[in-house]
Amino acid sequence: MPSSNTISHEIAYALRDEILRQRYQSGDRFPSERDLAARFDASRGAVREALSQLEQLGLIRTQPGGARVQSLNAASLAILGPLLELDGHPDPLLVDQFLQTFGVLAALTAKSAVNAASPEQLIQLKKLVVDLKDQANDYEGMQPPWRELLEAMSAISDNLVVRLISNDLKAQFVGQMLKLGFRPDLKKGSRDRLVTTLRVSLNEQDGERASQAMQDHFEEFREAVGEAIRFKADKPSNRVVN
Amino acid sequence: MPSSNTISHEIAYALRDEILRQRYQSGDRFPSERDLAARFDASRGAVREALSQLEQLGLIRTQPGGARVQSLNAASLAILGPLLELDGHPDPLLVDQFLQTFGVLAALTAKSAVNAASPEQLIQLKKLVVDLKDQANDYEGMQPPWRELLEAMSAISDNLVVRLISNDLKAQFVGQMLKLGFRPDLKKGSRDRLVTTLRVSLNEQDGERASQAMQDHFEEFREAVGEAIRFKADKPSNRVVN
DNA sequence: AGGACCAAATTGGTCAGACCAAATATAGGG
DNA sequence: CCCTATATTTGGTCTGACCAATTTGGTCCT
């Protein structure tokens, strides 16, 4: 999987990969644009555009006189996806951390949404929860209503910060997860409990409870995903469905 | 405050500003590179580098045939800073959302850190909490030990996802807050309560409690900041300290 | 009139070669 | 050995050109 269609993106991809693989120490001089142009047999303009992307990612810092490599964890959130993709299969620890993080953000969203919802919005949310309960026989069928619910809550809570973070996270992870095509097995009681608790929280407009429900649900989801990944690790039959 | 030293950055700044101010509808055609080059009296290369940055920010999507403007909340986290800077003073709602978000992430970090800490690391954390208590007479003096504590917890919890998000958030917000130079008044009991609860959670290695302490503390901090901003709004004497 | 199809203009992607200013490396003098 | 002046490297920008993909506009057929 090289990367994109344009040369500059390909160069950026290759260089990003090298930096992510720690082939340069933080603070090291980065090869000069002219050298890179020669190495990739491309024009300096194309190289410059690639470097511009790396700079946006916070991986390098350019300056007249030379570019330097920056510390990895001073980088931007946008490197998470590439980082996952590095060795073809996602790092289980990283996936776990992602779900943990996404969980607290979803919980916060639920809390704000339930607390701030207007009567009509409460009705809307209740309806979505019912949808979730009805369609929730298999993992695939559960996804659309689940996503709808999250989306509705996100819209109601109207927290741009969380939304932007979630955008990035989803863009980075969800694609990877789908590409590997694994379906975590959620324990049966988990979803019922979520639905029930969400309903109560909506009826009483109790954001705190909704938050807790989300948190618990993501916790169980995390465990299920962890198992699924371990399973994958045993049987490395990663088929790309596309 | 124009922006940077290079022309391409200046162009990127100007265009980013226009998009953030909603001067284009999502899906609109973006001016062609040649037009932009003429408008900014720059070379097309410089314009291309600027557009490359906008693309990384998720603000536009380029394609042979023409670039198009993307939806604002499909953008990257990195637009938060510019968004805050738009009118010289930060949007109180956005600041509130930031603190709320940062709060839950800090709480998650505290939980993981306390739960995962080795005996030595527990001792280290306890020491930092003591520092926090000692040096905590004024807002300024409190900052270094506070930051140290957060940093230590972040290092122990070792959650790259949270770390990257926090990097971005801090890079975007902290600068702005300092630039405006306001000091929220934390209620006196708040810090003591935080210190006390953190100590207990460390002694019993109770991550859940540490998380709750963080959450509560950020909640109070949020209110204090909210007041400070309202105060600023009344007396708009925004002096840039630099 | 409406829709399918084809040619021309527009646009992004890339290349080559050149110049400048800032930063670095090098050599020379104290 | 340190400090300074010079030469070189390097990033930032410009000009002008070519290609391929997309858009656009018009034409033709139904």
Map the helices and strands.
2 copies of one chain form a homodimer.
Chain A: H1 7-20, H2 33-39, H3 44-56, E1 60-61, E2 68-69, H4 80-85, H5 92-116, H6 119-134, H7 139-157, H8 160-180, H9 188-203, H10 207-234
Antiparallel strand pairs in A: 1-2
The first copy, chain A, binds a DNA duplex (30 and 30 nucleotides) through α3.
Give a nutshell description of this structure:
Chain A has helices at residues 7-20, 33-39, 44-56, 80-85, 92-116, 119-134, 139-157, 160-180, 188-203, 207-234, and strands at residues 60-61, 68-69. Chain A has 242 residues and is mainly alpha-helical. A two-stranded antiparallel ribbon of chain A has the order 1-2.
CATH topology of the largest domain in chain A: Four Helix Bundle (Hemerythrin (Met), subunit A)
**CATH structural class of the largest domain in chain A:** Mainly Alpha
The portion of residues forming beta strands of chain A comes to under 5%
> What is the CATH superfamily label of the largest domain in chain A?
GntR ligand-binding domain-like
- Oligomerization status of the protein chains: homodimer
Number of domains of chain A: 2
Structural class of chain A: mainly alpha
Number-wise, the strands of chain A total 2
Taken in chain order, the helices and strands of chain A follow as HHHEEHHHHHHH
Shape summary of chain A: elongated
Low-confidence regions of chain A: 236-242
Give the mean pLDDT of chain A. Answer: 87
The radius of gyration over CA of chain A amounts to 22 Å
